[in-house]
Amino acid sequence: MIGIVARKELRGALRDGRVLAGACVLLLLGVVALASAGARYASVSRERAVAQALIQEQWTQQGEKNPHSAAHYGIYAFRPALPLSFFDPGVLSYEGVSIWLEAHKRNFAAGRPADDMTALARFGELSLGFVFQALVPLGLLLMAYASFSSERESGTLRQLLASGVTPAQLFIGKFLGLGGAALLLLAPLLVLCIGTLLFASGATWLPAAMVLLLAYAFYGALVLLLALTVSARAASSQTALLALLAFWAVVTFVVPRIAADLGRILQPTPTAGDFQRGVDADLATGLGGESPAAMVEKRRSQLLKLYKVEREQDLPINFQGIVFGIQDEVSNAVYDKHFGILERAIDAQVDVFEAATVLSPRMALALLSQEVAGTSLQHQRHFERGAEAFRRKLMDLLNRDIAMNSKSGQADYRAGPDLWRSTGEYHFEPEPLGASLARSAAPLTVLVLWLAVLLGAAIVTTRRLRVLAT
Amino acid sequence: MLETRKLSKTYGDVAALRELDLVVRPGEIYCLLGANGAGKTTAINLLLGFIEPSAGSAHVAGIEVATDPNGARRKLAYIPETVMLYGALTGFENLKYFSELSGQKLSDEELRGCLSRAGLAPAAHDRPLKGYSKGMRQKVGVAIAIAKRAGALLLDEPTSGLDPKASNEFSELILALARDGAAILMATHDLYRAKETGTRIGIMREGVLRAQYAAADISHTALEQAYLEQMQD
Amino acid sequence: MSLRQELHLLRREGLAPWALVTLTLLLVAAALNGRALLGVQARTAAALEEEVAQTTRALADQAGRGVATAVSPGVVGYSLLSEPAVLPTTPLGALAIGQGDLLPAWYPVSARGAHHFLARSEPENPLRLSIGNFDAAFVIVWLLPLVVIALTFNLVSAERERGVLAVAVATGASATDFILGKVAARAAIVFGSLWVALLAAALAGGVPLGRAAGALPLLLWLLGATLYGAFWFALALFVNSRPRASDQNASLLAGAWLVLVILLPALTNLAATTVFAAPSRVALTTELREASEEADRAAAASRDQYFFDHPEMQGGDMDRTAYFQSVAQTELSISTAMAPLLAQFDTQARRQQSLVEVLQFLSPGTTTWQALTALAGSDGARQREFRAQTLAFHERWSGFFRERLMRGATLTPADYAALPQFRFDEPSLGRTLARALPAVAMLLVLSLLLGGIAIRRLRRFPVV
Fold it and tell me: Which range marks the domain in which residue B95 is found?
């Protein structure tokens, strides 16, 4: 019975000129989004790989130099583009792509792609993620809003039930038929996406892509469930359409903006000025009560006692290297503190946003999608933390070299390519899929909650299905 | 086969149907006469389980409609006043779809046979329904009912809007179905048709079954007179 | 049907009051949101300026007492003092945030190279940035059309379906007048509420209604928003002028909204950033590194030259002046090397903007947005003007210190009093108001065109 209904709905949808036209438009938009994102991904990947290699070469070829000068020269870490970013650019257009790793200072990431886009970029980027989060659901709504209501209005619903089909069988049949039609129509685009992914990065990101596919299919199922339920419940096809369009517009565009700005109002982030003032103050006084100068003094007396000498100049090591080390210890702790404050402030804003996803399952899907595609805020933090770890290792190596290989007061100590090469190359390792999923518990819960609620509504509506049009 | 026991339906303080007691046995054609709003359609909708009774019960082949509407529906066939099936499908495709839904496994030839028996010309079987006239659509509705081979048949104003020839063909068909053993309840305005086809006739007004007659026991003129008397106030 | 009767009917049907209450609430909430953001920016700028003023006063005082660090143009210019170049908030700023939350509202101008401060940004939540702002311009451009569509999609089709149109025409009324009467009633409600809501939003957003700089742009905002609404009414009428089922009309209008408000602006941005792609920031980084290396080598060479000239200084540091002269030279050579690439960024940005200004005519959504943000002073043009003025100021500021440094002069309190000040030169009110003209013209033309065609078609409209 369900199969019969499903088959009819499927065939009906595939033969409907408007459905086919809509699918063509979606396909076209999807191809445009894919092509532009794919091209950008290719050029960005290449460019950053080349740049990283160039930076590395500049580092190893910097000739004979005092290691501390080299530390000030520093090195750059570039964030490579991840393959799934062509599908969902996430927040990365609004995050810096490179970090200058220099001595004594932890810098912010710089080079935000959004700074070089026009103001219209704030209308939203036309990405595949957008096509699947906003446009495909609209298509599903338009396909299904009249499913029950027009049958009721024309009288075929009466005929169907009189034949002995139960409302539940009808609902499930319509769901499967229309859902199947949607999948078939979207299949070309999906195949293109997977193909592009495999071409770009082989099978490494395929599990993530499968998770994305599941998540988006889940959201599509939610939307279809909603549309059919509203269609079964509404007084007329018109009412159903209006209600669904209003829901779509509000959930897709209005709630996210309000939620994001609400987060900003409830949990403001520190300004750049606040940040800098905090850092400067703590650098001067040191954290934990001991001033940097005092720490240096303490270490000096320790070392003098250890090596049983009277003067700094008599130490077998260059004390300046130790001093640099202490300065870095202090500054690292200070930056940890203040970056921590900043991160927690932003996290608090994101928490407000996550709470609001209860009102908008699209937002939940967007958050999940970004995490899995590797283009979320947390992935950027992973990049920043990795770069910072590399910086500290680098500075440590350079400081040690000064301490071990030169003498106090030796102003003309120069190190060479051997030291530069020994620092190793900066290498970015993306987080595993498991980490991303672990962080996505909240959006996943919201999506499952919505499913539960919509299923409940569907069951109640079909049980009391209104057959007559008056 | 079709039975109502003190079946009532009230909307707010308006009584659409008041304590209807009705029995239609297999082979009988019961014609329900009455003005618009008399309660004929309400009675049919209650028997179909499309609305729930306020009091009393409706039964199809012994199954109480309110407790098992799906079970009841499997035992009956229904032809509404305007047969509005799927315009994009042909007459044959519509019949096939509804026939499959009712659990029937008829072959294509058998289905076409039903269409022909209902009076639809073979040339029209494979044209899209949206091009059919009202009479042709009604024949598809009848074919669906025939194909279902249900024990009971509910008809709502079946001859309204049909020309006399089509009306006549329809009557013949109904009589044949009754001879095959179906219990038929027909709501209609058409006094003439009621007397010609019906076994029993009931006159309804404002939700109440005012009078019942055996068709054989009353003449056309007497029926008309009785009807007008009931309608007067 | 008379206007009054139609208004009564609308009130009874219930949709109109709801839509309009929502519109008003949203506009006021959006304006408050914008004002909050602007408030933070204004306070930050004020705090900065106060801080710098204090530092300057302290340094001037120290200079008077002859403190070494305060009299050295090198130390002061290159590491102690920087002047904030602040982009002031505009009267209508709360109504349209534009790029205001993304691009810098102030630059810390020091004597060092411009590339040190140009690329700064506030630490913001990128999730919020990627989603966009909830401001009054958003409500007008995105949501006002939805309200209009909700009220007009079944304008004619419902009456036709219900048979009311046939009855009305049978009584002798012309179909066109009947339909236009319905449009007029709805327009009256929408525009009446829009004006009230916008005035309320303006008050909530702190727009100074008493001043010309506040009142005139607001009037143009009202005009722009009204014409935008009128365009959507005309489009709805145009769609209604062909006999179709109500829900088909709704689907068509929803599709139009999707294309005009969402897709075309996004595609315009894509086109502009693809055709006139900005230079790569990554390439900028590597170029900067090369330039720094070059400059450092040159500086080392000149340092060696210095010690050659002053062998007695060997073993100690160069004296302060010489050191900073070397720094100044280094900065100058890096800036000179970087100038062409940085200029390219500006060129491409300007070209992108020109392309946008042409492509905007593909969609009333884009033109209206451009106009509303231009009137509120939060568009790309004012931002670029700010950057240009900042760079010019930077020339003056760094020149002030470099000139004294190269002369070997010291700073006196009089010098401190004569420090250049940054004041943003706002574009004239007339020029700002003129930025709204393309949108006004386009919306007017489109509304009249679509409305005209629709009315002609309605005269021959099949009543059943």
Answer: 87-149
DSSP 8-class letter at C111: S
Residue to mutate among C270, C287, C296, C341, with most A CBs inside 10 A, is C270
- Provide the 8-state DSSP code for A252: I
Cross-chain residue pair C258–A138, CB shorter than 8 Å: yes
Do B139 and B186 share a structural domain?
no
Q: Is residue B82 part of a domain?
A: no
How far is the alpha carbon of C373 from chain A, nearest alpha carbon, in Å?
10
Residue B81, domain member (yes or no) = no
Residues B66 and B167 placed together within one structural domain of the fold? yes
C-alpha A426/C-alpha A415 separation (Å) is 20
Q: Are residues B107 and B169 in the same domain?
A: no
| Contacts with B73 from chain A: Cβ below 8 Å | 161-164
Q: If you average pLDDT over residues C219-228, what whole number do you get?
A: 94
Same domain, B68 and B158: yes
**In terms of CA atoms, which chain B residue is nearest residue A468?**
B50
Any contact of B with A, at least 3 CB pairs below 8 A? yes
- Signed CA dihedral, A184, A186, A192, A198: sign only: negative
Query: Got the DSSP string for A67-133?
Result: HHHHHHH-EEEEPPPPGGGGT--TTGGGS-SEEEEETTEEPPPB--GGGGS-GGGGG----HHHIII
* CATH at B49: 3.40.50.300
Please tell me the distance from the alpha carbon of residue A229 to that of residue A454, in angstroms, as a whole number: 8
Q: How many domains does chain B have?
A: 2
- Per residue in B154-182, pLDDT tens? 999 888 878 888 888 888 889 998 998 99
How would you list the strands of the sheet with A105-106, edge to edge?
A: A75-78, A98-102, A105-106
The residue of C38, C247, C293 whose CB has the most chain A CBs within 10 angstroms, and thus the best one to mutate to test that interface, is C247
Q: How many beta-carbon pairs below 8 A join chains A and B?
A: 60
**Among candidates C102, C142, C349 on the partner chain, residue whose Cβ is nearest the Cβ of A114:** C102
Which of chain C's residues have a Cβ under 8 Å away from the Cβ of A62? 293
In sign, the C-alpha dihedral spanning C201, C204, C210, C215 is: negative
Tokens of residue A182, six digits:
């949607």
Residues B204, B100, single domain; the answer is no
Residue ranges for chain A with pLDDT beneath 70:
470
C-alpha–C-alpha distance, residues A310 and C245, integer Å = 99
In a domain, B112, yes or no: yes
Cα separation of A466 and A55, whole Å? 70
Same domain, yes or no: B136 and B180: no
Residue among A124, A130, A273 minimizing CB distance to C48: A273
pLDDT at site C366: 93
Q: Are residues B9 and B50 in the same domain?
A: yes
- Residue A17: burial class (beta carbons within 10 Å; 0-12, 13-18, 19+): exposed
Burial of C129 (0-12, 13-18, 19+ CB in 10 A): buried
Please tell me whether the overall predicted TM-score, pTM, comes out greater than 0.80 for this model.
Answer: yes
- DSSP, res C235: H
Residue A117 is predicted with a pLDDT of 87
B111 lies in the same domain as B173: no
Average the pLDDT over C295-301 and give the result.
81
Give the residue extent of every domain in chain A. 2-463
Mean pLDDT over C423-439 rounds to: 90
Confidence of residue B134 (pLDDT cuts 50, 70, 90): confident
Decide if B80 is inside a domain: no
Q: Report pLDDT digits (tens) over C153-203.
A: 888 887 777 777 777 777 767 778 888 888 888 898 889 889 999 999 999
Dist. CA A74–CA C289, nearest whole Å: 10
Tokens of C312: 């007695």
A120 vs C274: CB contact, 8 Å cut-off? no
Above pLDDT 90, what percent of chain C?
38
